Amino acid sequence: MNWSAPDLEKLVTTLDRHGVQYVLVGGFALVIHGGDSVTTDVDLAVSHEPDNHERLAHALNEINPRLKSGAAVRLDRLAFGGEFSGFLTDAGPVDIIRRLGPFPFGVLHRQAERIELFGVLVPVARLEDLRALKADSERQRDQDHVRTIDALLALRAEG
Question: Around Cβ 22, how many Cβ atoms within 10 Å?
């Protein structure tokens, strides 16, 4: 299997062009905040509104979504009804996360930091919110991320 890093530029510019409401979470968000995580996919929290799901489907269809098995798929707004949806795309693997633990999407989106990447203001979850999203996970990777987030927050507190 050939591996290449996800094409974050292609993904965020496509989402922006389609007006998708999302927040970048997961490993890429941690890296943007200064963490040293290696990640093979892009994790997105998305608004639950049906019209946003419609825009998300159009955006992902533009970058050729496939199931994890590799089978091509044409998405519509109903593709994002579960807690989690994962697709391979021309921009790399994309995971759509609807279950956000302690946060309604609106709160996560309002609190997100807007960081300019590739000429687009990308909503990136705050470190505190990333920590809250990962704190209850039993996965070792998430616990490693929590320790990294704690270290980054301590560095920020020191000034």
Answer: 25
